[in-house]
Amino acid sequence: MSQLADELEVITLGGGCFWCLEAVMQQLDGVHDAIPGYAGGRRADPTYQQVCTGATGHAEVVQVRFDPQRLPLADLLAVFFAAHDPTQLNRQGNDVGTQYRSVIFWHDEAQRDVARDVIDALEASGRLSGPVVTELSPAPTFYPAERYHHDYFSNNAMQPYCQLVVEPKVMGTRRNFPQLVRRS
Fold first, then answer.
1. Is the CB of residue 22 less than 8 Å from the CB of residue 62?
2. Domain 3-179 class?
3. What is the pLDDT of residues 122-177, one digit of tens each?
4. Which class for 11: exposed (0-12), middle (13-18), buried (19 or more C-beta within 10 A)?
5. Cα angle vertex 67, ends 25, 23, to 5°?
6. One-letter-per-residue 3-state SS of 65-108
7. Tens digit of pLDDT for each residue in 22-70?
8. How far apart are CA 104 and CA 91, in angstroms?
9. Alpha-carbon gap, residue 18 to 104, rounded angstroms
């Protein structure tokens, strides 16, 4: 195993459509990769079509490998919470169902504790329209999404969903967290 791999942490996040979250996370300095997939359900090796029905119990997620020395988890989670509405239960905008739930699948107890602290601070800030409904759970098995979902925004930027939904989230991250965005 390389020294870089030893220094990276992994966290699995769900906040609506994984195309949005993948594109947001990929632009952060310190993120090594952000892989779209499925987690938290009852079926092994689910497909996109199965997950979209809501019947498998999986959430669309992004598994993020990042360097905590360059991007502390609290900062990564601040971007995560800004990129979706953590007060919406089992939906994000027009995407409705448990597969679009807000969830943090933590990979160790230190991550769980940081996530709780970030949520507590967010709720105390008074900036939200309601309580945070983000699920905090230990990381279950992660199933990478089909290859055509990877780098979706980069490969489909002109697609209407990307222009209307993904791009505003990417631009919002650049505007609101310029210090965390990778310099070209």
1. yes
2. alpha beta
3. 999 989 989 999 999 999 999 999 999 999 999 999 999 999 999 999 999 999 99
4. buried
5. 10
6. EECCCCCCHHHHHHHHHHCCCCCCCCEECCEECHHHCEEEEECC
7. 999 999 999 999 999 999 999 999 999 999 999 999 999 999 999 999 9
8. 15
9. 13
Half-sphere exposure of 50 (CA within 13 A, CB side): 16
Catalytic residues: 17
Counted residue by residue, the chain has a size of 184
And the tokens for 156?
């489909």
Q: If we measure between CA atoms, which residue out of 142, 176, 24 comes closest to residue 92? A: 24
Residues 6+ apart with CB under 8 A from 142: 12, 37, 38, 39, 61, 63, 105
pTM, two decimal places: 0.94
Report residue 80 as tokens. Answer: 């995560």
Q: How far is CA 74 from CA 11, 67, 77, 96, 113, in A?
A: 12, 12, 5, 27, 10
Q: CA-CA distances (angstroms) from residue 151 to 3, 4, 20, 100, 108? A: 26, 22, 10, 19, 27
Number of H helices, E strands in the chain: 8, 8
85 to 3, 32, 88, 182: CA distances (angstroms): 36, 25, 6, 24
What are the sequence ranges of the domains in the chain? 3-179
